[in-house]
Amino acid sequence: MRERGRQWTRLIVAVAALLPAACAADSAGRSANPFAGAWRTEDKETIAFTDDTIVLSPPGAAPTPMTAAECNGAFRYRRGRMTRESLTGLVAAQPDLHQRLIDLLQQPAYPVVEIGCDHGTSTYVMVDDRHLVAIYRDRDVLGLDRLSRL
Question: What is the spatial distance between Cα 95 and Cα 74, in angstroms, rounded to a whole number?
Answer without folding.
Answer: 29
